[in-house]
Amino acid sequence: MDKAAIQTAMLKGAHFRRAIREYRAQAVSEADLNYILEVGRMSPSSIGLLDWRVLVFENDAKWNQVRQHAWGAQKSIEHAADKFIVFVAQKEVRYDQSAIQELFASRGFNQAQMDKATARYRSFQLNDMEIPYDDARGFFDWAAKQTYIAMGMMMSAASAIGIDSCAIEGFNRAEVNQVLVEQGLIDGTKESACLMMSLGYRLNDPKRPQEKLSMDGFAKFVE
How would you classify residue 8: left for phi > 0, otherwise alpha for psi between -120 and 50, otherwise beta? Predict the structure, then answer.
């Protein structure tokens, strides 16, 4: 596929994409799901930290246990999406915690390289990001931000092939985490749900056009 064709497909998908909450009974194929997941897997993240993963719910009973605590997913109960994805981020992402040190070690860093990377990362988090050393929620929120990059890429990948989606932030985190722990899906001491996403095919076409900024309002060129 040449450049123009890729641009056409991506722009068509961008204009097609809407936040869809009611879906028709049509399955997302395994091949299409794997394509969307692969785009998410390859998404960028700060310093390449592998600080998050996804849970893909195909078991209705288990998903319904989670859904009870997600008011943002309630509208689609009658006309539910084919797939629901929960993004899970690590809590231990401070520069001196095990997840960071394991990342550096996995890259083959020797001790001197690890010390240099740790110092650079410490300055980034404490000074540039301004996250206080003892602010566990601040470090988790920073990790959770990375999932939004992945979700955006996955939603774009889906819309480019005519698959609908919806980002779901409306849920009680503590209650959802408790269910995921009980289901044996997360380690509640190290991980937390931070975002959800539905995938499927829209039941109805939108009733009104998208409301977006004009290009002039969106982009200012600094010369």
Answer: alpha
d(CA 130, CA 32): 40
Query: Model pTM?
Result: 0.91
What is the amino acid identity at position 39? V
Task: Please name the residues in contact with 198: beta carbons below 8 A apart, sequence gap of 6 or more.
Answer: 20, 21, 23, 73, 76, 81, 83, 84, 85, 165, 166, 168
What are the pLDDT digits (tens) for 120-163? 989 999 999 999 999 999 999 999 999 999 999 999 999 999 99
Using alpha carbons, select from 154, 10, 160, 188 the residue that is nearest to residue 84: 154
Q: Packing angle between helix 60-67 and helix 173-182, nearest 10 degrees?
A: 150
Cα angle 96-148-1, degrees, rounded to a multiple of 5: 120
125: phi then psi, degrees, rounded to nearest 5? -75, -50
Reply yes or no on whether the pLDDT at 50 is more than 70.
no
